[in-house]
Write a structure and sequence with these properties.
elongated, 491 residues, five-stranded mixed β-sheet, 14 helices, single chain, alpha/beta, five-stranded antiparallel β-sheet
Length: 491
Amino acid sequence: MVEQSDRAPLLDWEEIPPSSDPSQAAPSLPAAPKEKGDVTSRKKTSTPVCLQVTEIGRRNDNCTAISCPTAVVDGRERSPMGREKRPSHIQGQPVPPFPDVTVRDQWEEKDHIVAVFVVTFNTRSGNMVEWCLPHDINLDGVEFKSMASGSHRITNDFVYFRKGSYFGLACFANMPVDNELERGARMKSVGILSPSYTLLYRYMHFLENQVRLQLKNPYRYSALEAFYEDKKAILPPTVNGLVTACPTWSVTTINRCMHPEMKITHPAGCMSQFVQFFGEHIMVLWKFALLRKRLLIFSPPPVGVVCYRVYCCCSLANVSLPGIGVSVPELRPFFYINVADIPALETEMSYVACTTEKIFEDKKDLHDLYIDNQNVKTHRSHLLPLLRLNAADKERYRKLSEQRQLLLYSQEVDGDCTSNEEDLFIVFFMELNNRIFQILSEVAGSADPTLTAEHVRAMGLDPQGDRCFLVELLEMYGVDVTLVVDNLCCH
């Protein structure tokens, strides 16, 4: 049965260092069959893009996403989480030496907290920033991002969001008070900003405790001041304008590099609950994510677990083959958004976000896929065929469910603790994506670049039911092949 609950409790924080176990070799991808079908063809006219490249990693004008564990891009070595490894000197400034810690570890252990703030609800002024450090930082709009619309109906929540080139995490709490001035309720959020969301989970427990303290003893900021002084960022010059996207994972490092925050802060496992919640329609989300469309998830508060769904949607599009997707927009997580984000969304070609504001359903020019609870819909007629589940979709979901059951059985009977559902789901979709692009690469580079029904089946797709998906995929990634089909379902 599909899990209906949208509630996720705030849990105790536990900082878990990354594993240092060496990763295993990645399994090889299946070779594409070369048979050719006897049906009509449709020649792609888009500019061809070579899929076979030797450079590991990728970057575009707005963000950087890197294949694990490290990569050299534009002459710079980059880390598994998509950040540049700090050079030994930045603008001539030497990094303070720590004899027992490598330069990379010194940089990776930096917390990069650029701001800490307290937001309160004022019965006369509404949401407002009550206090922040540093005092001169621009926090316009944070008061609405860290206290989601409709939060007055719940007792606590946590929110991931984006503020310009930074990501934020805020913990919200609502406490009843016997006070006419506050109309019987005191509401506050305590939050932080960072250039990346991958380490924000470490401070959820701290933020939760602080927001409760602020409710009981307002206007006491000494603990927050000490926290900021201890964790404040020393940012490299390249951080301006840099937005961290979901990394491009490799199978060999999935256990070492996968974002730990989603497993630590959610009891059932973020990805596991995500797949169970959407069921077979996870395949619809996967197609829209791989096509780099704009996905918007609506849900009433609490919004914390919905922020996880944003992360999970981004994870569906992971590809670990070098060079794939260098010419397409990144699928960037916006996490929670509100009406103040509309101008920013108008310029975005690809994103995943969530909101508690129903008005976005009518803003059809801002999204390609609108997700309300378990209902998915699109107003774009050429994408309507992607909403229909075909036989290949159901078979993929059956295999995913079967693998999950085998994993649960091995954990229960054999006590296998080396694997988990999070890794299983992420690797499942990454290998699916890798297989598709591997076959496309082989066909595009062959003497006869014709994509036949046999090739499509080898990708795990339905030659007829997934034709529209393939047309969009070839167009988006600029793959110059002849697509052979039995019938036309879209143009």
